[in-house]
Amino acid sequence: MGMPKQRKSREEVLGLLREAKKDDLPIGDGRSFGYIYSAGEAVDEVKKAAMVAALGANGLDPTVWPSLRQMENEIIAMAREHLHGDESVVGSFTSGGTESLLLAVKTARDHARATKPPLPAGTRPTMLLPETAHASFQKAAAYFDVEPVMVRVDPETFVTDVDDMRAKIDERTILLVGSSPGYAHGVMDPIEAIGALAVDRELLFHVDGCIGAFLLPHLERLGAEVPPFDFRVPGVTSMSMDLHKYAYAPKGSSVLLYRSAALRHHQYFACAAWSGYSMVNATFQSTKSAAPLAGAWAVMHFLGDEGYLELAEGIHRSTRELIDGLRDIEGLRVLGDPIMGLVAVTAAEGVQLPIFRLADAMSARGWYVQPQLGYGSSPRNLHFQIEPSNTTKVGEMLEALREETAKLLGQPDAAPAPLLQMVATLTPEDARTKFGELMAMAGSGGPGDLPNARALVNEVMDALPAETRQELLKAFMGQIYTPPTGA
Ligand SMILES: Cc1ncc(COP(=O)(O)O)c(C=O)c1O
Question: Residue 414: how many CB atoms within 10 A of its CB?
């Protein structure tokens, strides 16, 4: 396939786009308990108009687009007030949770380089990472050559073990990490205890509030018990908070806040040692779209505190309905004590239940729930997440889940034992070289064709060590991104 030879009309192009989107996960129908954050049509309309208005601007240079500077400074001021930061707290607008976390780690590394004695040759700085911390911290470790030292979590509550963290601090440690809450189980880390440790050992401490930090203050005002997790806690030196989650901003919107401008300085990159324009970038991108920034700013003004509180009320109510309903289904067990509408369930103790087949059964009935593989002390599970469009659908979804769970109780897994025995011997190298074969066994008809039996794929993945899983995932990514051939 090459560049289209002739022009197409606007109608033709938009028709092609509609056709391309026909199998996409529907947005806003409330049947997906993951991925989506939709606050309704009126919010979407404002967001779209603001994004269109900002389309031509280039975030590369905020000196020639003062509006971009104004919007970003105002968003950071709003975020800092939301998280109880004083006037010394500053930050940046980033493209998402992952960029915020990558930058927080890069900043910690460069801060350590500037302020600590050099490490012995051949050693790397470390960050202390609870097993439940988001995968993007490990991406940051890989990108910036920081060693992740995994910290134990309690196998029942999934709360970070602060004694284990304390024991792992040494002269190489540059950063402590906690989540408010973690994605996988929706469980809060002991932010105050980790903060005290950070103060005592004079270390940087990042609180990952990507998913929870915007919503939790609203839930607290509605009566939820929320332990202090933000800049009120001494020792917290940086925080991430995604706006494209519970602030309903367009995808590509997050903020990263620092306790001081001196710390943020290590995030910036400037280059005047070349023959072009003087380059200074706050974040990873250089030329960048201003559309997410304008969309986020517009939605925050449009909804305001009262709008967000109203949306949070629905989530608050539905969270109880979801957690109580899940606890009430025979054969299921809720993992840990989730603080908001992020809940993981697994098979109850001593019960035979093919949990990934349950995800497929729900999907066949038009409900999306997210399978999560077992890792460390966390068993394989299904993950549910509530956002405004789900709030009217929780009861219906729970009913479907109850019926499908009852049908599957006592049933075997999808993957036959010989297949699991075979994959148990796979090396990471095999995962790369035998990927096509494995996909064919799972029912894929070739590149780009996803196997229908997702349960089988998840069970196989679940049986493998993380390193082999990772190689398979990369091989899979390489396969689905195969450019089309032919006309
Ligand atoms: C706690 C937490 N941190 C980080 C991220 C990564 O955010 P993003 O997908 O916007 O990069 C997520 C995403 O769900 C999250 O829940």
Answer: 19
325-367 per-position pLDDT tens digit? 999 999 999 999 999 999 999 999 999 999 999 999 999 999 9
Instruction: For residue 321, give its domain range.
Output: 304-408
Q: For ligand 1, pick from 98, 101, 253, 340 the residue to mutate: most ligand atoms within 8 Å of CB.
A: 98
Report pLDDT for 433.
84
- Provide the number of structural domains found in the chain: 3
Residue reference for tokens 């196997």: 451
Residue 175's H or E segment, with its range, is strand 173-179
Task: Provide the pLDDT confidence category of residue 448 given band limits of 50, 70 and 90.
Answer: low
The answer, yes or no, to whether any atom of ligand 1 lies below 6 A from the CB of 134, is: yes
The DSSP letter of residue 48 is H
Pairwise CA distance, residues 408 & 319, whole Å: 25
- Same domain? 247 vs 385: no
**What CATH number should be reported for the domain holding residue 147?**
3.40.640.10
Q: Is the CB of 250 under 6 A from ligand 1?
A: no
Question: pTM score, two decimals?
Answer: 0.96
Query: Is the CB of 185 inside a 6 Å radius of any atom of ligand 1?
Result: no
